[in-house]
Amino acid sequence: MTLEQIKEILPTLENVEFQLEDGAFVPEHFHVTEVGQINKRFIDCGGVIREESVVNFQLWNADDYEHRLKPGKLLNIIKLSEEKLGIENNEIEVEYQSNTIGKYDLEFNGKVFILKSKTTACLAQDACGIPSEKLKKNLAKLPVATANTCTPGNGCC
Prior knowledge:
It holds the Pfam family DUF6428. InterPro entries: DUF6428. By secondary structure, the protein is α/β, with parallel strands linked by helices. It is built from three helices and six strands, in the order H-E-E-E-H-E-E-E-H. It has one domain. The protein has a six-stranded mixed β-sheet with strand order 1-6-5-4-3-2, covered by helices on one side. It is elongated and about 85 Å long. The model has no long low-confidence stretch (mean pLDDT about 90).
């Protein structure tokens, strides 16, 4: 989800809710403690220089159980970030702490925002020597040759 997409969704909501893929909800008294843009410049294992830029939201839980972030307030935080930091319309990455700080992609299911687990991957598989995935076949669907097959008592075994 991009920054422009969340800006279109927020005015249609009564509450801002985040849910993890396992169905657990981020406690409703969460705070958005940071909105920013993260620019990453790196080299992959194949020697290619790459650049990546994401909009970052950091969610945090405090002990103020009566706190509720309303859609209009989050929209104002986003607009202030665009104005003061020059944030661009990039994909949103959400930081949220469970056992450690996790980074999540963001989706919307029509009611709540879903924190989608991110995974790592090799960006230069051809340069790393990682073999391409072999074609998998269902052995039960392979044609069975009937000629030259052994049957009990025909002396072929």
